[in-house]
Amino acid sequence: PVPVYVMCQLNVAEVPRAVLRRQFTKLRNAGVHGVMMDFWWSIVEKKPSVYDWSMYDHVVELAKEVGLRVQAVMSFHVCGECDGDGAFVPLPDFVQHIAKGNKDVLFRDEFGATSMECLSFGVDHEQLFPGANGAPGARSAMDMYGDFMRSFRAHYQRYIPSTIVEIQVGLGPSGELRYPSYSLSKWSFPGIGALQCYDMYLEDELRTALGAPPPRNIVRSYNDSPDDTLFFKTPGGVHAGEDGRKFLRAYFDRMHRHGDEMLALANAVFSGSGLVLSAKVAGIHWYRLHDSRAAEAAAGYYCSESFNAYEKIAELCAKHNVVFLFTCLEKKDSGEPSAAQASPEALVEETSTFAHRAGCGYGGENALEFKDLESYQMILDQVNRCQLRGADFRSMTLLRLDENLLSSAHLALFTR
User: Fold this and answer.
1) N or C: lower Cβ tally within 10 Å for the chain?
2) Strand partners, 70
3) What is the separation of C-alpha 18 from the centre of its chain, rounded to a whole number of angstroms?
4) Beta strands in 140-290 (DSSP E)
5) Is the pLDDT of residue 27 over 70?
């Protein structure tokens, strides 16, 4: 059987202990293996290089007392820019302060708008951020991520790996390895979003890779469809020509390099701990059936007849012995609007097949909260199909813990 986890409230540290004990006990009695919880960067590291985990200590201890395992998310991103986010958690104040003086530490779209969802990949190795005692220019983004994870391991050592069993490595917006191409404040479904490579650092990197600046005028707005654009339209779109293919591949490669370095860093930090590491990949299922696969490409998941981003990500996961964690397992093709040209089912088949071929583990999440039998059945069917095609299915994590999930009427459905 595949272990089932339930994702905690985004503000789980603020839930009264008595309420959380009752909820955790009900989950355990229902046969749930454990819970997933976010450890938010800005809550823990309010001052540079000063880490305070006390907000989360009682939650981890309670999980141990009740007998639940914990999947811990290293949350280096903002909460509040995704469908279903019911809370707001910003980046740390000291990071925001740097961003006010240098907006290029953030991803930027071709219209000049920045994204506050997470730091740009372009500052992975730029010594721009303060260190201990506020020393200026002491750390890069990678330094900060590594310091955070090392502090986590040291602080929770006695719970590892008996209670805390898995680390989901934060890799980008929503913790996912992607660009912030479809932030809720700028986008609505099923827009293709906008590419995010126009901050000074990424633009310079891509200029070096391409021999020319990254192209502009790719979309007119975040809510375009592929055929609204000269770049992604079919037939005859720029994406299908040599320059378009070279650009989208370079855009993917920069994201891939960030993932490679982050997973190598996490492996170094947690080496010998017995923890499982996982990497989350977004289920961008809209326009999956359009030849351009434009929404995926805008997020960094470039796929064509000769190249597939998910294959490369699966190989990356295998290289670092990391579980490929994918979303949208509850979604049916028939439940999506025809104009979206969506196929969540094809994406699950595609990603789980590549995970099997690469030899990495595979895990699942639902993309959006639900409380209906049909969605539960779809998840069961998808897990079964993944296993039949050879995927090493490690766990299924359900969004999200609340009183509705644990109501007597729904709990019977969930347990069944």
Assistant:
1) N
2) 35, 164
3) 30
4) 164-168, 276-281
5) yes
Question: Strand, helix or coil at 39?
Answer: strand
CA dist., res. 176 & res. 239, Å (int): 24
Evaluate if residue 44 carries a pLDDT over 80.
yes
The residue type of 315 is E
Per-residue model confidence (pLDDT) at position 83:
67
Tokens of 302: 């470039």
Give the span between the Cα atoms of 242 and 67, in whole angstroms: 55
Reduced to 3 states (helix: H, G, I; strand: E, B; else coil), residue 290 is coil
Q: Are 52 and 40 in contact, with CB atoms under 8 Å apart? A: no
Say if residue 221's pLDDT is above 80. Answer: yes
pLDDT band of residue 410 (cuts 50, 70, 90) is confident
How many helices (H) and strands (E) are present in the chain, helices listed first? 12, 10
Query: For residue 117, which amino acid is it?
Result: E
List the catalytic residue out of 81, 176, 330, 350: 176
Q: Is 365 one of the annotated active-site residues of the chain? A: yes
Q: Which DSSP symbol is given to 157?
A: G
The number of beta carbons lying within 10 Å of the beta carbon of residue 185 is: 11
| pTM score, whole prediction | 0.97
Task: Tell me the C-alpha to C-alpha distance, in Å, between residue 370 and each of 45, 144, 374.
Answer: 33, 36, 10
The two tokens of residue 243 are 């320059």
Q: Residues, the chain, total?
A: 416
Per-residue pLDDT, 409: 82
For residues 311 and 356, give the distance between their C-alpha atoms in angstroms, rounded to a whole number.
10
- In this structure, how many other beta carbons lie within 10 angstroms of the beta carbon of residue 408? 6
Query: What is the chain's Cα-based Rg?
Result: 21
Taking CA atoms, 255 is separated from 24, 73, 249, in Å, by 37, 20, 10
Distance CA 49, CA 148 (A): 8
23 with 89: CB under 8 angstroms? no
Integer angstrom CA distances of residue 38 from 13, 75, 162? 10, 6, 18
- The pLDDT of residue 29 is 96
Segments of 194-285 assigned E as strands:
276-281
What does the buried/exposed string (b/e) look like for 317-332 if buried means 16 or more CB atoms within 10 Å of the residue's CB? bbebebbbbbbbbbbe
Provide the token pair at 135: 């020393």
Does the structure show a pLDDT above 90 at 15? yes
With 0-12 / 13-18 / 19 or more C-beta atoms within 10 angstroms meaning exposed / middle / buried, residue 230 is middle
Predicted pLDDT at 345: 98
